[in-house]
Amino acid sequence: MSFRYGQRHAVELAAAAHVAAAIGVASHRIVDLDLGAVGGSALTADIAVPKARSSAEIGAEIPVTYVPARNTIFLAYALAVAEVLDAGEIVIGVNVLDSSGYPDCGPEFLAAMREVARLGTRAGVQGRAIAISAPLINLGKADIIREGVRLGVDYSLTHSCYDPAPSGGACATCDACLLRKRGFADAMVPDPTRYGR
Length: 197
Description:
Low-confidence stretches: none
Shape: globular
Largest sheet: 2 strands, parallel
Distance between the termini: 28 Å
Oligomer: single chain
Mean pLDDT: 94
Strand order of the largest sheet: 1-2
Radius of gyration: 17 Å
Helix content: 25-40%
Number of helices: 6
Structural class: mainly alpha
């Protein structure tokens, strides 16, 4: 499941569709939500995306690229869909290490959302709470990349940039690009990302 939420980096949706097709998922939903109406984020409003920040600056405070309650909204929607499909688990790709410091990516947040699943769904109150898993949460970017390589992930299909060019090329200087570049370098894996305008 992917979300078209008014993000400036909507090229990630095409990347998600390519990945889903490449690995043969049974169904890939793209859900439309208008988080741009909420505002408050450089990803959904006319606010500049921070560029060329140092490693010390990234993660030092919650950046303007934080989308208010994004993962809360995504997981609430995913819980509803999972309940309708009678799915037993939701897997989310949040990561607390090597991240931009978003509050909705950490273990405390996930523990709270697991309680929401237990207390706020029919499945949960009937004793069949939908599990919420985050297998990447405590991995650094280099570890994630190495694990992806081990599993056969084609990283040329993936996208991370917060401020891509109209052509889809990654900017190379936003937090997401810098963390991605560092992850590939630390993993000693060639970076297949297409950078440039």
